[in-house]
Design a protein that fits this description.
Length: 423
């Protein structure tokens, strides 16, 4: 596979991820509405599954494009095929534009993802530097160790006092560290600081740092999609509610944690989101929830119809590829035959001509009972997206002798190869 092929496949996958993530977001939002009275853990899990699907669906499709060798592995984005099916006045122009600029899509995505990845790496370095170089507080370090044992945390949890933070944050998984602002150690009443540390230990107990790190990776890869940022925000909000519940149960005093959070409202929010901070989410709503908790029922069963619908929709979309056999007839006795005298020869695109691009494209056409082309798609790319599209558009205008089954015309698929050669 050439570098040009790889860029084409990645670009097509990026374009298709736009509608894929939008569909996942729609289904997840409906599920979350149905679960609005459920426990935070249920909503948290639902949002995590949605965010993971936003990444896995494009990854699976990219692997299929690279190694499938079928119509589902086509280098042509499904988005472009949708435009073709819409048949609007400007559809051909949009198809050609998207196909011609796939390389720029990939370059732009790689540049932005690289910048965000560098930012994430610098954040990790900063947190590691604070954990190694800043002082500890013997009293609070001992108190944190005692509290960690009460939380049944077997790993050592370290405490570091940092000047530049506004609230405690937790980082690390194997050797977790809680970074505490010096202003809180010096000025906050001990019982309130202890409540904030209990919140941070709840994050350590749940291994939230790893999930948050995975979120940051997905945000870096799919930075261009608002659904990804919305789901990630919902995950962080629900995660803070879960940590509040665990800390309140451990302390036995929800109001003490609420009072501690109210003190944080006056402080500047931390910008280091790779760590778990006690000031995440909406502080006022969290405070009200701790002081006046709503009666919640674990009505996860209310989401079952929504989840079933989501599975059905996703399965349907996964199956609506040009290679689907839903419209093919196993009993076809004669295959469709192209009447090449009914259509013009595909014209060499000027850009491909300038590059002296050549290759063989394999197309698939769904031929209706009257011999017209109902659907057309690229099954195997020639290596040049413009050549693929030019062949698809031109041959789709041909008339065919329809396939037959039992002597009657039937709709059926037929493969067609076209060789592009400069000679």
């Amino acid at each position: 596979m050439t570098g040009h092929d790889l860029i084409g496949h990645v670009g097509a996958t990026l374009l298709d991820s736009v509608w894929q993530a939008a569909l996942v977001g729609l289904e997840t939002s409906v599920a979350l509405v149905g679960l609005r009275k459920a426990r935070p853990q249920t909503r948290y899990t639902t949002a995590c599954v949605g965010l993971l699907l936003c990444l896995l669906w494009p990854v699976v499709q990219l692997v299929a494009r690279l190694y499938g060798g079928t119509a589902s592995a086509s280098g042509t984005p499904v988005l472009v095929q949708m435009l073709a099916g819409a048949g609007g006045a400007g559809s051909d122009g949009w198809q050609a534009f998207l196909q011609a600029h796939l390389a720029w899509v990939v370059v732009g995505w790689a540049a932005c993802a690289g910048a965000l990845g560098l930012r994430m790496a610098l954040g990790l370095v900063w947190v590691g530097h604070q954990a190694r170089t800043h002082r500890t507080d013997a009293h609070w370090n001992e108190r944190l160790t005692t509290m960690a044992a009460q939380f049944r945390i077997t790993r050592e949890v370290r405490l570091r006092v940092v000047d530049v933070l506004a609230s405690p944050v937790t980082a690390g998984w194997w050797r977790p560290v809680v970074l505490v602002p010096a202003s809180l150690v010096a000025g906050m009443p001990p019982q309130l600081l202890e409540a904030l540390l209990a919140h941070e230990l709840a994050h350590v107990r749940r291994h939230d740092y790893l999930v948050n790190l995975a979120q940051s990776v997905i945000e870096t890869i799919l930075f261009y999609h608002p659904v990804v940022w919305w789901l990630s925000h919902r995950i962080r909000v629900e995660r803070e509610l879960i940590a509040d519940d665990i800390a309140a149960r451990q302390l036995g005093e929800p109001r003490r944690l609420a009072l501690a959070l109210s003190e944080l409202e006056r402080l500047q929010f931390s910008t280091y989101h790779l760590a778990q901070a006690a000031n995440g989410g909406d502080l006022m709503s969290r405070i009200k929830r701790l002081v006046r908790p709503d009666t919640q029922t674990s009505n996860w069963k209310a989401a079952l119809p929504v989840l079933a619908m989501a599975v059905a929709v996703l399965a349907g979309c996964a199956g609506t590829t040009p290679g689907s056999s839903a419209l093919e007839h196993d009993a076809v006795t004669t295959k469709p035959i192209a009447k090449f005298n009914s259509c013009a020869k595909p014209e060499y695109p000027q850009a491909s001509l300038a590059r002296r691009a050549e290759g063989t494209v394999t197309l698939r056409f769904l031929i209706d009972t009257d011999g017209s082309v109902a659907e057309a798609a690229v099954a195997k790319s020639s290596g040049d997206a413009l050549l693929d599209e030019a062949a698809r558009v031109a041959i789709a205008k041909c008339r065919f002798t329809p396939g037959t089954a039992g002597g009657k015309p039937v709709r059926s698929w037929v493969p067609v190869q076209y060789v592009w050669s400069m000679s």
